[in-house]
Amino acid sequence: MAVGRRRTGVHIDRLARDGLVLALGMAGMSAANWVYHMVMSRALAPAGYGGLSALLGALFILTVPVTAIQMGVSASVARGGHATDLPSSRAGGAPSAVAGSAPFSPGMLSRWLRLFLLLGLAAFALLVAFSSPLAAMLRLESPVPVIIVGTALISWLPLPVVRGMLQGMRRFWALGRSFLTEGVLRLGLGVLLVSLGLGLNGAVAAISLASLGALAATMHSARALSITVSSASTAGSGDAFRWLMPYLMAAAAMTVLTYADVVFVKTRFLPLQAGIYAAASTGGKIILYATAPLAMVMLPEVARRNGRGTRSWGVLIRSALYATCAGGALLAGYALAPGAILRVLFGGAYVAGAPLLPLVGLGMLATELALLGIYYLLGEGRTGILRWIVLEAVAFPIALVVLARSLHATALLVVVAGLVAVGVVWSSLLLRPGPIRSPQTAGALES
Questions:
Q1: Between 179 and 6, the higher pLDDT residue
Q2: In sequence order, what are the residues at sequence separation of 6 or more whose Cβ sits closer than 8 angstroms to the Cβ of residue 423?
Q3: Phi, psi of 347 (to 5 degrees)
């Protein structure tokens, strides 16, 4: 029993450390992204910034596989148990070899990158073909911004392959640097290109160039580290694709629930109104961005424990508590001083969106708690919840079209969607707990 407690204590320390490391990297990226949005909101004015926000929303919807690839690959690697002995610290030394592992070769990485690079090129070609109607739907004067932002797909699809491998093996220093690189490049290139007079085209070009730079930097990190991974998990595509589909469904559903409202407002309301709502929506999503590292650290740990036959309920509870504390603090600020927050973040032209900020923030907090529950279930190999989340994702845009007659009504629907999602997910967690393996089985797997 004493040994078990010591293992648990070390493990909790490692979980906290990994979360902090990744949080720092993603916080740097988030800070850079917020400065990017602040600069763009002032440089492009509300109408132009509304177009940028709608393009970003459409891009996120079109690049749902990005999240699915990274989370699916990370869970596949971690579930095999091969991340167990890998130190996540930069000073941890060479990784320990485990049974059945094989060196992570550049050739293996190249095969995956070629596959998703081809998929990215195909997605870009499809977007170019429909750029004119998409530009008209988003009320843009030209299809050029749509084409430029579509080039991000070429690097956005290969990038999560490398990040997923780093995440699954708990190489969070390298993963954090990858996110930070993308954020800093986006900010720097965005300021440069917009200052050169390129306007919206320059703002979206910075997104594509930043993702390309992050891909190059992350590949360098992966090759520089002496990484070992399970040949069964990554040598062939079958295992990773088997893991990919549930994460694809989850990522698609949650992307619709968090970004469909921005695209809807851009297509149904005046450009000025769309820009004001975009600012409130972006501000509300700070809660999602701030708590995202929790899910990324939690998922590989849940998958690893599940592969060893042990439960990880405590990991979920701690992650949910951390998310509630962090998100609740932000939400309190939104409720107390929404106008001041919008003025600081985006400028005085967006203060009219103050009543929307706490509503969107509440919806995002509920959505984050639902997301943690979904990844916990997927980490344990339980996919039944997906049918209900996908159903809600289908119903949400319909509800927007039917019920959202104003910006306030749109924000209220975001709250309802988040509360429904968290209610469905956590009721499944509490009422239908997963099977607990016997201590004998768990002990055999641990050995």
A1: 179
A2: none
A3: 110, 165
Q: What is the model's pTM? A: 0.74
- CA 396 to chain centroid: 20
Contact 345, 330 (CB under 8 A): no
In this structure, how many other beta carbons lie within 10 angstroms of the beta carbon of residue 32?
A: 22
Is the separation of the CB atoms in 18 and 296 below 8 Å? no
**Which residue from 157, 168, 165, 153 is spatially nearest to 113, judged by alpha carbons?**
157
Q: Is 430 exposed, middle or buried (0-12, 13-18, 19+ CB in 10 A)?
A: exposed
Query: What value, to the nearest 5°, has the Cα angle with vertex 156 and ends 154 and 158?
Result: 80
Amino acid letter, 222: A
CA pair distance 296, 24, nearest whole angstrom: 13
Spatial distance between the Cα atoms of 381 and 369, rounded to a whole number of angstroms: 19
293 close to 70: Cβ distance less than 8 angstroms: no
Q: In whole angstroms, what is the distance from residue 92 CA to residue 390 CA? A: 41
For residues 50-85, one letter each, b for 16 or more C-beta atoms within 10 angstroms of the residue's C-beta and e for the rest, the string is: bbbbbbbbbbbbbbbbbbbbbbbbbbbbbbbbbbbe
- pLDDT tens per residue across span 69-114: 888 878 877 776 444 333 333 333 333 333 233 333 445 556 777 8
Reported as a pLDDT band with limits 50, 70 and 90, residue 66 is: confident
- DSSP E strands in 188-269: the ranges are 228-230
Q: Cα separation of 246 and 316, whole Å?
A: 19
Tell me how far CA of residue 341 lies from CA of 35, 292, 331, in angstroms.
14, 21, 11
Q: Is the pLDDT of residue 386 over 70?
A: yes
Residue recorded with tokens 């599940």? 306
- Do 20 and 169 touch, CB atoms closer than 8 A? no
pLDDT tens digits, residue range 323-351? 999 899 999 999 999 999 999 888 888 89
Assess contact for 33 and 304: CB atoms under 8 A: no
End-to-end CA distance of the chain: 15
Q: How far apart are CA 240 and CA 229, in angstroms?
A: 13
Angle 357-379/271-284 helices, nearest 10 degrees?
A: 50
Within 13 Å and on the Cβ side, how many CA atoms surround 264?
A: 24
